[in-house]
Amino acid sequence: MAYSAIKVIKEALTGHRGWKPLWRRPEPKSEYDIIVIGGGGHGLATAYYLASEYKNKKIAVLEKGWLGGGNIGRNTTIFRSNYLLHENEMFYEMSLKLWEQFEQDLNYNAMISQRGVINLFHSDAQRDAYVRRGNSMLINGADAILLNEAKLREKCPFLNYDNARFPIQGGLWQPRGGTIRHDAVAWGYARAADRLGVDIIENCEVTGFDIQNAKCNAVRTSRGTIKAKKFGVAVAGSSSAVMENAGLRLPIESHVLQAFVSEGLKPIIPGVITFGAGHFYISQSDKGGLVFGGDIDGYNSYAQRGNMAVVEDVCEGGMALMPMIGKARLLRMWGGVMDMSMDGSPIIDRTPIKGIYFNGGWCYGGFKATPASGKCFAHLLATDEHHPNASAYLLNRFEKGYMIDEKGMGAQPNLH
Ligand SMILES: Cc1cc2nc3c(=O)[nH]c(=O)nc-3n(C[C@H](O)[C@H](O)[C@H](O)COP(=O)(O)OP(=O)(O)OC[C@H]3O[C@@H](n4cnc5c(N)ncnc54)[C@H](O)[C@@H]3O)c2cc1C
Known about the structure:
Blueprint: H1 5-13, E1 31-37, H2 41-53, E2 59-62, E3 78-79, H3 86-106, E4 117-121, H4 124-139, E5 145-148, H5 149-155, E6 170-174, E7 178-179, H6 182-195, E8 199-201, E9 206-212, E10 215-221, E11 224-233, H7 239-244, E12 252-264, E13 272-274, E14 280-284, E15 289-300, H8 308-321, E16 330-341, E17 347-350, E18 356-360, H9 370-383, H10 397-400
Parallel strand pairs: 1-2, 1-11, 2-8, 4-13, 11-18
Antiparallel strand pairs: 3-7, 4-6, 5-6, 9-10, 10-11, 12-15, 12-16, 13-14, 14-15, 17-18
The structure holds flavin-adenine dinucleotide.
């Protein structure tokens, strides 16, 4: 079923009885060529690119819950490619370009809105750091514009310029950044992968790996043992727990990140704005809700809910930046479990066990990485070669000392 304006009009006139489920609900087969573990954004994108670019393979995605129940349906929907280090900037810019053609490629409306991302700066030193980052973005083919205070005031007159503890001096603006409806991304990839023959199997938890002579031959699941030649693990916040079943310890910690949505308000926030003197960021959804968040909760957890101390911290950040937010009523909030790597950059690599490949360490920036991650992981799974844009995301970089420490914060997930 392809979507088109004609189809929408026809369904509107005939009681919407012709829409079909977006993906099948197949029973698991006993064997596949490649099994992707985890039906979040990264797992589904991987399956889609495997099926579309490396044809004639039998592929399954095994998801322990329902599609969209993990971080792909819990994030604050921001995409951008405003990184400093070349290894990251080229990867995230690749992702941004894939987002720009996502809806056409997949014939699926994900409400992509390139309304721009502004990182505020509050001191001369921070401005200089942002100039450097902006130049790095330009060198890597991305877009970046430095806004002085006057220009920023035109765009965001509601910010606290005059009485703030950290006066706002300007911002680094990436006009091509923005927001995308997150669960539409999961549904779009699921539908496209299913149409190419991928079996998407929900309620199928991987509980163990059958490994002999350092080679994996099958996974044990809540729906039986399933064989495959290769297994791609893309389980985000559950990375350490799943890989422990294969006897592997990862340089990753799991932490909760919370998100907040206010009641619907008239349009006020022009794009995505991030506070440069604290951890707070905000955008406004198409329905009018202010969507915002801040720091991770500072302790390890697999609970998909957060604590009050971070709620207070996030609200303090909001009040410092734009005091008018104090009048908005909070409608809902939730948490997701983040796979925090020790240098803040991801891993897309083989593991010491033949047949098991790993994708994770996305910290809280993995949503925007979804298309590039899927494409690069599919490339690795299909060819056993690293994709050129992800060749630095190696598992052994921590023991070798080749960290991709974007923020220069070292092994401190709470500072990434
Ligand atoms: C509150 C919040 C805000 C965020 N905001 C942003 C943002 O604005 N921009 C951005 O770029 N990123 C953001 N992120 C980060 C981003 O959402 C994640 O990095 C990204 O979604 C992780 O990849 P995923 O979609 O594959 O994860 P998930 O959707 O979590 O997918 C992993 C899947 O694996 C499944 N799984 C786990 N264990 C097993 C098992 N044993 N067997 C089978 N399946 C299993 C899970 O059920 C889950 O569905 C945010 C995250 C949160 C929580």
